[in-house]
Amino acid sequence: MSVAPWLQRQRTSLLAQRGHAWLLHGPSGLGQYELALELARAWLCERADRPQEQGACGACASCHAIDVRAHADLCVLLPEVEMLALGWPLDEKAQAEIDDKKRKPSREIRVEAMRAAVEFGQRTSARGRGKAVLVFPAERMNTISANALLKTLEEPPGDVRFVLATGAAHLLLPTIRSRCMGHQMAWPQPEEASQWLQAQEGVAAADVPVLLAATGGRPEEALRMHAAGRSARAWSALPQALARGDMGAVGGLAPAELIDAMQKLCHDLLRTGQGAAPRFFAAADLPSPARLETLLQWSRKLQDSARIAEHPLNAGLMLESLVALAKTALNSRPP
């Protein structure tokens, strides 16, 4: 996948500046991970005749090593679920524990991985271009992990650079934030986002407006939604299906994904109830107006459900309960 033009501009700006630690922050889904990886690729690129501001060459041995997830001078710190999703290898011990079903992949950045990253930073560069540590999403560090990183940020080895990326910078330790140069992620222009998404393989032009609306104007998140098989047609049909209590419409969705979709639907209904235009769904796809009090109660219940969505006792039962709540809320009628 080509680097989006708005990320290219940010990459050029950041590479023209000096610093050993960057914090990329802003609303989630703006390409924090992609930009962080682009910075690491450029720092480690071995094309000597290429100005670093242009980014990595994409053809040297270093760029290839990153492409195949095997660069000796790049340490990637992600929750294990993200590592597996993005094709990064786990260490042998962690992979064996997961393969043997002794535990599930972690959704936090584990302390063991952070300690290994600290040790990595103290080693000599294998390829002679320095080392890079990428942390994403940085808010998934627990207190112990964050404090372990903090010590290294305070006294960094001479040839290692850090890039932390997050969609929730307020959850990071203030001391972590203060030791990094901050970069606020830029939003793409709507026309630019639409053109880029339409140019991606397999994305139909007619689906682009729906996918962008569904993700709040975040094109890379829209592309991930498309790649996961969540079609524009299914998104448009979801409000009416939930109003009918149709479980078939939520097949294949994890509880967290369904809650996110329902929160967006509730948000749009609250907006239209006050005379504003919906943001995530087309007005024609929304069910009939519902009672304001019921929508507010539904919103609070969704917030409560979101806190346990990643660790439900029974995902199937949780989905059924969510759909039942949605049906009740969507069929309430104003007096």
Verbal overview:
This protein has 335 residues and is an alpha/beta fold. It folds into two domains: 180 residues, 3-Layer(aba) Sandwich (Rossmann fold); 100 residues. It is 48% helix and 7% strand. It is built from 15 helices and five strands. A five-stranded parallel sheet has the order 2-3-4-1-5, with helices on both faces. The longest helix is centred in the last third of the chain and has 19 residues. The model has no long low-confidence stretch (mean pLDDT 93). This is DNA polymerase III subunit delta.
How would you summarize the topology of this molecule?
Blueprint (H helix, E strand, L loop, with lengths): L4 H11 L5 E5 L6 H13 L16 H7 L6 E4 L2 H6 L6 H8 L11 H12 L8 E5 L7 H12 L5 E6 L8 H5 L2 E4 L5 H9 L9 H7 L4 H9 L4 H13 L10 H19 L18 H15 L8 H16 L5
Parallel strand pairs: 1-4, 1-5, 2-3, 3-4
Write a compact overview of the structure shown.
This protein is α/β, with parallel strands linked by helices and 335 residues long. It has helices at 5-15, 32-44, 61-67, 80-85, 92-99, 111-122, 143-154, 174-178, 190-198, 208-214, 219-227, 232-244, 255-273, 292-306, 315-330; strands at residues 21-25, 74-77, 131-135, 160-165, 181-184. Strands 2-3-4-1-5 form a five-stranded parallel beta sheet, with helices on both faces.
Number of helices: 15
Q: Please give the domain count.
A: 2
**Class of the largest domain in CATH?**
Alpha Beta
What is the number of beta strands? 5
Q: What is the percentage of strand-forming residues?
A: 5-15%
In the CATH hierarchy, what is the superfamily of the largest domain?
P-loop containing nucleotide triphosphate hydrolases
Pfam family, one: DNA_pol3_delta2
Protein name: DNA polymerase III subunit delta
Organism: Pseudorhodoferax aquiterrae
